[in-house]
Amino acid sequence: MNDATIEIAYALDTFYFLMSGALVMWMAAGFTMLESGLVRSRNTVEILTKNVALYSIACIMYFLVGYQIMYAGGATGFIPGFALGLDAENTVAEVLGSDGDIYYSNTSDFFFQVVFAAATMSIISGAVAERMKLFSFLAFAVVMTGFIYPFQGYWSWGEGWLDALGYSDYAGSAIVHMAGAAAALAGVILLGPRKGKYGPNGEVRAIPGANLPLATLGMFILWMGWFGFNGGSELKMSDVDSANAVALVFANTNLAAAGGLVAALLVSRAMFGKSDLTMLLNGALAGLVSITAGPDVGSTFLAILIGAVGGVLVVFSIVFLDKLKLDDPVGAISVHGTCGIWGVLAVLLWNGDATFVGQITGIVAIFLWMFVVSFIVWGIIKATMGLRCSDEEEAQGMDISECGMEAYPEFTKQS
Is the pTM here over 0.90, yes or no? Predict the structure, then answer.
C-alpha cells in the first residue's frame, strides 16, 4: 500500500472503532430504559440514578487502572501487568512504517474497551434492583470495573493464558456477559429476594414492571447498540475482506436476535398460554448474547438457530431460577449468564479452531473468578456498609429513601 492509502485506512478504521464504541455507549441507555420499565414505579428514580452513576464510575475506574490491567501484558499469562496511563498515540512514521499493521488510534481502542466494562456492570444493576442500597452498589462498581472484570479480561483479550489455550469468544459472550451475570448471581445470593416475591410454600408471585413500553424501548436500544458491540469487535473495515466480515456480523447479530425473540414467543405461549412480553424482550436479548461469541459464523441460518436456542433457554432459565428463589427482577442472570455459556459452546458448531477443552476451560475459569471474587467483595460491603435497604424503605420505594424524589409524582396520592 502507498502512504496515502495507509493513512486513509487508518483514519477510516479509527472512525469506525469510535462510532462502534458510541453505539455500545448507547446500550447504557438501553439497560437503563429496560430496567426502569421492569421495576415498580416507586423504584424508578433509583434505577436511573444507579445506571448513570455506574457508567461514569466505570469510565473513570477503567481509565485509571482497568484498561492497564487488561492490556498491559503479564509475565505469567495469569497475573496481569500494569502500566500507568494510556499508550502514546501512533505517529505518522509508525503508522506508515507498519505497512497497515497499525490501523487504528490507541485512544480509540481505550474508548471502545471502556464501554464494554460499563456494559458488564450494567448487567448487574437489574438483577439486584429494588432492594440494594445505592452506595453499596456503586462501591462494588468501583472494584468491579477497576479490577475484577479487567483481570479476567486479560486472560483472553489481553493475550493471557486463555488466549494461549485457544479459547474463542469474539465479542464477549462469557468475557462480558457471563462475567456480569456471575457477579450478579453472587450479589443476589447474599442479598435475598424482594419482599413478597415468594410465598411460604415456594410459590412464585409475579411483580409486574411499571412501564412495559419503556422496557420495550430499552430492548430495541440494546438491539441497535449490539451492532457496535459485535460489529466493532471486527476492529477494522478498510479493506474488502474486513468490510464483508463486518456486514456478515451485523446480519448475523440481527438474525440471532430475531430468532431468539420468536423462539421465546413460541415457548412462552406453549408454557403459559399467553404471549408474555417480558419473555419476548429477554428472548431477543438472549439471541444477541448467544451470537456474541461467534457473530462471524459463515451461515446466517446457523445464526438464527443459535439465537433461537438462546431464546428457548432463557425462558426455562428464568423459571428455574425462580424455583430456586433467586430473585432477578429483569432476568439478567438468565439472559447474560445462561445464554452466555451457550454462546461460547455454540462456537464449536462451526469454528474448527475452537476446542471443547478450550471453551469449557474459559467458561469455568471466568465464572469461578467472577463469582468467587465478587462474592467476597459483596460480603465485605455487606459487613461494612450493608447491602440491603430496610423493610420500611423497600415498602416505601427506594426513590424516596435513596434519592428523595419520585419518577411519577403526579400519580402519587396526596394526603
Answer: yes
